[in-house]
Amino acid sequence: MANLHHPGKRWAPVMHLSKEGNDLKRVACLCVCSLVLLIALAACAPPLPAAVASAPPTSAVTAEQWAERYPMEYAQWAASVHGVAYLAGDMAAPGCTGCHGDPAGGETRTVPFRLNIPAKCGRCHADQQVTAKHGLPNDTYESYLKTFHGATVAYYRATDPAAERYEAVCSDCHAAHAIHAPSDARSSVAPANLLRACVKCHQGAGPAFATTADGHFRTDRMASPLLYVLELVYRIGIPLIIGAMLLYILLDILHRVRSRAGGGNQS
Ligand code: HEC
Ligand code: HEC
Ligand code: HEC
Ligand code: HEC
Fold first, then answer.
1. Are 122 and 212 found together in one domain?
2. Distances (CA, A) of 141 to 52, 64, 185
3. What is the pLDDT of residues 229-241, one digit of tens each?
4. Is residue 102 part of a domain?
5. What span, in angstroms and rounded, lies between the C-alpha atoms of 184 and 188?
6. 50 has pLDDT over 60
7. How far apart are the CA of 110 and the centre of ligand 4, in A?
8. pTM summary value
9. Could you read off the pLDDT of 23-47 as tens digits, one per residue?
């Protein structure tokens, strides 16, 4: 690389390192080592877990009473993957107060509740124990947050919880009560039904619009190898390039300071 400040010299800071005293070498060595450590940390550190919501208040109302008060929601839930599991005694599945408190309180119609829905589902669907025990993927919440919908909802949830937003939350695609596995034909996100879920908001969208990647965005090796490699290149490449730039600047400053201290015989 040509050196603009010192025409004729190839790369002044490096030449200094090779010619001059041990102090500079030690400083440079320290910089390089910290840089390598930083890059390794940036590349290997797992992303921070996204904040999930706490459990809604429990209620003394019995299943029979819920069925009487809200027959439609109850019937949908009872036939759903959650209801079937719950009624069979699986307490890890949500009952009527698993996602919200008593609906009579009006909570489910408030604006902050809507922005909170993904975090309410995430309470269980990002829980390592619950997902492992049920053979479910652990990243449904995280992969939702990586989509346009999820990132926008998370942003407003954190900065302006009273904002009225219409980006899709979990229940817009999966339904709130009639939730089934995507492989079940009754599921609102089953391949044959998915477009209908999008068209509720994206009017006029054609069949090509509903790709599964818009519900959950995954960059793992198996689902999308190309994206995985690209993300890796970015995670390693960006700190490497910025680090190298900072190192270059630091060496240049050191060089100038030393030149000046040495009576300016270098410049
Ligand atoms: C998997 C999460 C989940 C479970 C479990 C659940 N709900 Fe809901 N419920 C929601 C969401 C989300 C809403 C918000 C409104 C919507 O999207 O339909 C809601 C809204 C409601 C509403 C208000 C509807 C309205 O128009 O304002 C009622 C009533 C209700 N739920 C009753 C129940 C009953 C009864 C049960 C148990 C049989 C139950 N829910 C279980 C997620 C759930
Ligand atoms: C209290 C914990 C809990 C909450 C809250 C919860 N779920 Fe679940 N969910 C489960 C469990 C447990 C299962 C597995 C049930 C089984 O297969 O027996 C499940 C299964 C599912 C499945 C089926 C997955 C498959 O491939 O079989 C979907 C889809 C789903 N949940 C979506 C949601 C959505 C959307 C919400 C929020 C509106 C939500 N869940 C809230 C615990 C929860
Ligand atoms: C509850 C409403 C709702 C549902 C359901 C919904 N979306 Fe969206 N979506 C939005 C909103 C609102 C935006 C932001 C639009 C904007 O800012 O232009 C958005 C943005 C998007 C974007 C990025 C921006 C753009 O306009 O291209 C994509 C891609 C997208 N949605 C795909 C989907 C797909 C695929 C489905 C169905 C699986 C779906 N959405 C279901 C509300 C929804
Ligand atoms: C824009 C629509 C959309 C939104 C929003 C959405 N999903 Fe999904 N979800 C899908 C589709 C489509 C599938 C099936 C294909 C796939 O797995 O990506 C799916 C699959 C799932 C599954 C089955 C297991 C799996 O990942 O294969 C679970 C559980 C689930 N979603 C939970 C959630 C939760 C929890 C949220 C909110 C935090 C959410 N979904 C938000 C569309 C959506």
1. yes
2. 9, 31, 23
3. 888 888 899 889 9
4. yes
5. 9
6. yes
7. 23
8. 0.82
9. 777 777 677 877 877 777 666 655 5
Q: Which residue has the tokens 């008593």?
A: 102
Residue nearest atom 30 in ligand 4 by C-alpha distance? 140
Cα distances from 31 to residues 17, 175, 207, 246, 260, in angstroms, run 13, 53, 54, 10, 22
CA of 210 to the centre of ligand 1 (A): 25
Nearest to 24 by CA among 215, 257, 265, 266: 257
pLDDT at 40: 72
Neighbouring CB atoms inside 10 A of 179's CB total 24
Using most ligand atoms within 8 A of CB, pick from 114, 117, 201 the residue to mutate for ligand 3.
201
Range of the domain at 38: 12-45+232-261
**Residue 114 beta carbon below 6 angstroms from any ligand 2 atom:** no
Which residue in the block uniquely carries the two structure tokens 């009576």? 263
- Residue 44 Cα to ligand 4 midpoint, Å, equals 27
